[in-house]
Structures are given as C-alpha cells and as structure tokens.
Amino acid sequence: MKIVGDKAAAGVWDRYRLLPRLPRTHVLHDAAIEPASPFREGTGMLEKANGGVVCSDGAPFVPAFGVRGGHMGDDDYVGGGHVSFRPTPGFDVASCEEQCEEAIFGGFLYTHFGHCFMESFSRLWDIARHRPDMPVLFLTERRDGPDLLAWHQSLFGLAGVDPARIRLVTRPIRVATLVVAEPLLRLWSHAFPSALAAQREIVQNRLAEHFSGRELPHLPERVYFSRANVKLAITLGEKFIERYMREQGWDIVYPEDIDTYTQLYLMTNAPEIAAVSGSAIHQIMFRSKPLAIYYLNRFSHIVQDYVMVDDMVGTNATYFLCNRKTELPPHEAEGPFLLDLPRLLDHLEAEIPDMKPGILRNEARDEQAVLDVEYHGYWHLQTALIHLGGKRDDEAIRCIDEAIRSAPKNRRFLAEKISILVHLGRIAEAREHCEAVIRDGETARVVMEQYFQTIVRLSKHKEGGDFLRSIGRGKTFYEATKMAILYYNGGAPDLARAYARWAASITCDNLDDALQLINISSALSLHDEVIRLAPAALAATRSPYALRALVLAYALKARADDALAVSMDNLDVFWNDSIEFLFSLIQHGHGFASLIIRRLDGRNPEAGLAARLEALALRQ
Asked: Which residue from 382, 400, 433, 532 lies 20 to 30 Å from 274 (Cα-Cα)?
C-alpha cells in the first residue's frame, strides 16, 4: 500500500492480524436467543444493544457477542473492544415461549449495506452450505416492515443461502441445537483468509450462475464508485470529484442505483477502482483478479479495516489523505466530511497513471470556498441530529437554526428543520415553515418533499393540494405527480386525474418520480397512461410495482395476450410478483387460466403451481 499526503496523520492502521487457521464452529445444546434491544437510551441499535445467545445454564455465550476490536488469545476473544449483543444478565432460558429444533446463529442483521456485508455476512462463510436444511437466525432492530430488504435477499443468495431460510428473532426463542460460527473477520482486529477463500468461491460461482445466459454488464477500465447521492455521512466535495473523474475518462457508478449482482461484478472485475472511503467498497474481498484501487480517504486517519481487506485480497492500494482541516472536526463516522479539492487534484494527477494535468483547477478553488462555508451548516445539522437522538430537543432546534444561518442559500437545512419539527410532533409549525417558503417563489425540491410529507402526517391531503394550486404550483412532472397523489388521498379524484394526465404529458428523467406516477395512474384507472409509461420504467428498474400496474392495465383494456406476455417475460426476476398477481386477475374473472397453463412452457419453480392453476381454470 501507498500513503499520499500527511503520513503523520494516517494514525495506527497496521495492528490487525491475519490468522492462518479456519474460524471455529461451536454447537450448543438447549440454548436460547434473546432479541436485540437498545443498550441505553439514545445510543442506537447499530452500536450497542442487549440480546444474544444464552447457554442452557443461563450464562451468556461469549463467542456470539458482537465485538469490534478487543484482544485475541491463542484460541478466541478474551476481552476488551467494543461489545454489543450481550444478553441481559439473569435471562431465563426456560422463559422462552418460541421453540426451534436446530438453527444457525447469524449474528445481527444490519440494514447498513457495508456493515451487513462485513459483519452480518461474516458468520456464514462456509457453514450454511454444509447445513442446508437449518434456518439461520438473526438478531434485528426491525419491528415492522418486511423481514428482509431486497438487497438482503441478493446478498444471501450470493452467499449460497436461500433467503427463505432467514428468520429474524423478535421474541425469545429456545433452540435445541444451535450452531454458532466464529466470524471470518472482526472489525478493528483480525480476519481469517482461509475462510474468506471458501466464501469467495461460493460468491464467484453464484455470480457466474446469475449471469449465465445473460448479457454481462458493461465493464469499464476505470470505475469511480460515488457516495455523492448518499445522505448518510455526507462528504462535501464529492460531486466536484465526480465531474473531475469523468473529465479524466473514468466511468461514474452509483452503487445504490444498480442491483447487488452488478455491483459485485464491477467490484470484482474492473481493473482500476477509485472511491471515497466507505464500507461498501469492501466487496472487493470476493475478487481474485489483480486490482489497483485508490481510496479518497475522508477520515482524519486511515481505518485499518480497509488495509486488512487489501492485505487479504492482495490489492495495489493507494490512500490519498485528502480531508480538509477545520475548526469543527467531523463527528467520527457520522461526518460531515470535507475534501481538500486543490490538494486532492494535485495528488491524483501525480500518483494515478494517465491523468491529464491542470483540469478544473480554477473551478476547484472556487468550489472549495463555497464548500468551506457550507461545511459549517452541515456540521451543525449533524450536531442537531445527534441531539435529537439523545432526546435533547431544544438543543437540536438551536443547532439546526445555526445551520440555516450558516448557509441560508442551502434549502436542505430548512427542510431538515421541518423534518425535525415533524419528528417532535410540531406538525402545524412545520407546515407553516413550508408554506412560508413556498409562497416566496422558486423552492428547492427538498423543501417540497418535506411539505408533502408534512401534509400527509396532518391528513390534510386536499387542503395541501388546494394551497399549491392557489399559488400556481403543479406545473412540473414532480409537483403534478405529488398533487395527483394528494388529491387522490384527499377524495378529489377528478382533480387527481387532471394532474396525473398533465404529469404524463411531461418528459421525466427521474425513475422514482415516474414509478410514483405509474402507481397513482393505476389507482385512478388511467390505464392508457400506465401502458404508455410503464414499459420504459419496467425495463430500467425491473420494478414489481410497474409490472403489476402494467399487467393490470393490459388486462382491463382487454389485452390479455400483452398482460400474459409481460408477466411471462418477468417470471425469472419477479416470480411471485408476476404469477401471484396473475392469480388475482384470474380470481377476478379476467380469464387467463388456460392461457397461462399453455404458456408456462414447463417452468415450475414452486411446488403445486400447475395444480393451483388447473383449479383456478376449472372454477371459471
């Protein structure tokens, strides 16, 4: 590895250990799992929580703790570090109402992509493959919504684990036989390259299976993975770096905008990668090809986990220490972070081969002056959110007001104040703030979004639409779509249809907005609009919502063959969403049963499908 910049600021980054042995696997009998719960008020689930594995005698099972750092003896963890998921003292195994014969303990299921990849994945390595019939139990912070996010399902599929095996522990559960694997890596501490090699083989095989028979994604020579659109731990200056890298011939990729398989394909195959440091980049763990990687280090020091991963993979890594020193240092992992653009451009051109000199230098200095001002606002915003998490409401409001004063032209800070007011239950006050700004004229979308959310919280859908209509808003695709939704939910379908039709007549390049219009148009029975809009959105996003709306629109326009064709074309990606929706159409008398049976071509990935279809056909 190479460090470019102030090496004295790099900190201690080489205290990790790569251990030659395989991680251990423990088998417990008559164990229990206590659900995760906040460790202390205001701390948050990500960092500290109670809950975890308890032995039959009531003792906490230490190898199941969630540990970062700490001390390793010859055999296992012996203490220290940052410990979470430690069972509550005195937890009674016999008190569990839920029972399970055998299971694998997966640890904690993070909803943060990078930490899920590094930690939730870490206990599976080769264990789940050798015990294919066992459910995998995860601790969770989720108490509502779906058990697994879409990208969770993709990640588990890549690990060779059927997502149907995943169960989230929300009540105490007693397990007759519980398998607990030592994680293949521990943040801030150590890793097992031999276990990584086993999982790498699984992931690469699943990736090859996924793309078998499909056209491979475009593979650029040089890829810049951008975090610029991610609101978490914002890095000021990255939008400018995107522009600069594009000018230098790099392809810009936003990981959150592409599916997990494509992300991993690019991460494991692109010859050169650059990115602002972030845990999602650790997907390089599963590559076996040589890699030149350039980290734009946003932190004040080098995080040793990155170096540990680089060491295991054998990358040619360069770390650019490019954070700008300020009198308001970032809040550890939360940020905000500020890049020193002129210094960074100097380093990039000096260290990366074939970079053209002198590009955007004057613009970099001007942009830096703007960002230096905005940084103060973002720092106070993050401080406000920290106060809010600690239930220091008055301090939160004071800090967000300071953010607005620091950078009055940045409407995001006003939008965040409105969001905080809504969070605190001061919804009428939030609405007044929104409407005062909107009346002034041109309004940033971020404020409009907060206004719509506030109106929904107040259940004043029609009133909100009437206010916007009275001042002439609703002429853009985004606003017209939102107003159609407001009027639909406010019991004014004629106005809703008028705004939906107007929105459909406007060109839109935002897929999220387009999907919202497709959904509301479907709800308003504007089937011609759906048929016109949905095919492009479905092709671009593979959205189940666009699929459902399009199938329904075709069906209700008496275009049975088109409805069937689009469903059949998407069975491989959305089996349940397409076929189950066709079941509902059949049950509502649209007469597709015999057509479906003839056109399934022998594809039967779920047991009993043909029998269900035959039964539905006979009912008709």
From this structure: 382
